[in-house]
C-alpha cells in the first residue's frame, strides 16, 4: 500500500488498508510527522507507555503490526500523536477494514461481512442557520481528552432539534464508518406509547446482522448483546424524541468510539448529572437567523419583494422554526398571492392557532404543543393555563403563586416542571415567560 508519509488526509488511505501491517504503518507515519513538526525526536515506546499506562510490549505490538488496537486505544494514540479529525477518520476506516477482514462468519448478512447500517433520515436541504450549534457539536467531537459519548439536545416543541441532529449527522457521517442509526423513541408522539428499550435493542441488533434467534429474551441479556454489538465500533446513533432519562439510559453504548445524540422536549437533567451527557439547549433562533430561514422557505424573490412583511411574519411566528415552515408552506400554496395576504390572515386570526394547522400531526402546531401539555402534572397544567391568560409578558414567583392561589413554596417546583418541559423559560432570574404561540395555546386550553 502506498501511503503519503507526510499527511493522512483522505479516506482513500483508510479504505486502502488491507491488513494489520498497513494500519501500523499509518501509526508510524503519524509518529514521524509529529516529531518533524515539533523539531524533536519521535516519542519512544517507553514515553508512550508512560503517558497511556499500557505496557511497552503492548505499544510495540500496535506500532509493529502484531496487535490490533481497540477503538478507544486507537483514539488515545491518535490524540497523543496530534492527529487531525480527518486523520482520525482515516485511522478509524483503516481499523474497520482490518477488523472486517479478521471477523469470523457469524452475521445474517452472509459470510465474512457485517452490515453497515445507514439509517439517517434524508438530509433537509432547506436547513439554514444554527451555525453556532453545529460548531458546538463539532467541537465536542474534535476535543482532546475523553471523547463525548452522549450529547443531549433539548428545546421547546418545534424548535428544530431533530433537524439540527440530522443535519450534523449527515455532515459527519464519514467519521462513523461502522454505521449511523436513527431511532424515533416516540416520547411525545400523539399516537401510542413511547418505544420500549427492548424494541430498540432488537432493531439495532438486526441492523448489524444479528439473527433473530440469537437475541435473548431477558431485558438484561438484550442490553448486554446490544452493547456487545456496538463495542469496538465507531457508530453514530440519534435517539430522537425521548420522553425521559429512563427510556434513554439503557440505550447508551458503552464503547467510547460511539456517539449518541439524544433529542427531547424535556431537559433530562439526570442524563447530564449521572451519565455525563453534554447538554445543548436548542433555543429559538435570533431574529436575523429566523428571517433567513423564512426567506429561504418563501424563496429569495418573494422575500426580497416584501421584506417588511417577512419581518412581520417572523414576529407572528414567534421565531419558532416549525411555525415559520408551516406559514411558508401556506404562502407557497398560493404563489401568485402577495405574502402580505398571509400576514393579514394571521392578524385577523387574533392569536388563534388555526392557521398553523397542517395535513398531519408533524405539520400541526397545536398537536405539537398538546403532546407536551399532556405530559404535565395537573398543577403544572393549571399554572400553564393561568400564565397564558395573564396580560403581562412574564411572571415572577409571587405572581405565579397568586395565579395558582398557592404559596410561593408550592409554586416553585411547578415552575421548575414547566421550565424542564420547555413550556416556560426562565429568561431572567426568577422571571418566567413563554413565546406568543405557546401563550395562544395556553389560552385555548383555559377557555375550553
Give keywords.
448 residues, alpha/beta, 434 Repressor (Amino-terminal Domain), Rossmann fold, 4 domains, 3-stranded antiparallel β-sheet, elongated, disordered N terminus, DNA binding
Structure commentary:
This protein has a five-stranded parallel β-sheet. Mean pLDDT is 86; it is low at 1-7, 9-15 and 104-112. The chain folds into four domains: 11-102, 434 Repressor (Amino-terminal Domain) (Orthogonal Bundle); 131-281, Rossmann fold (3-Layer(aba) Sandwich), CATH 3.40.50; 287-365; 376-446, Winged helix-like DNA-binding domain superfamily/Winged helix DNA-binding domain (Arc Repressor Mutant, subunit A). The chain has helices at 11-16, 20-38, 45-52, 56-64, 71-80, 85-102, 131-142, 161-171, 197-207, 219-230, 245-248, 269-273, 287-298, 300-305, 307-316, 321-332, 339-348, 365-373, 378-389, 397-404, 408-420, 436-446; strands spanning 150-154, 180-184, 236-242, 259-264, 278-281, 395-396, 425-428, 431-433. With 448 residues, it is α/β, with parallel strands linked by helices. Pfam families: HTH_31 (PF13560). Residues 43-88 form the HTH cro/C1-type domain. This is HTH cro/C1-type domain-containing protein.
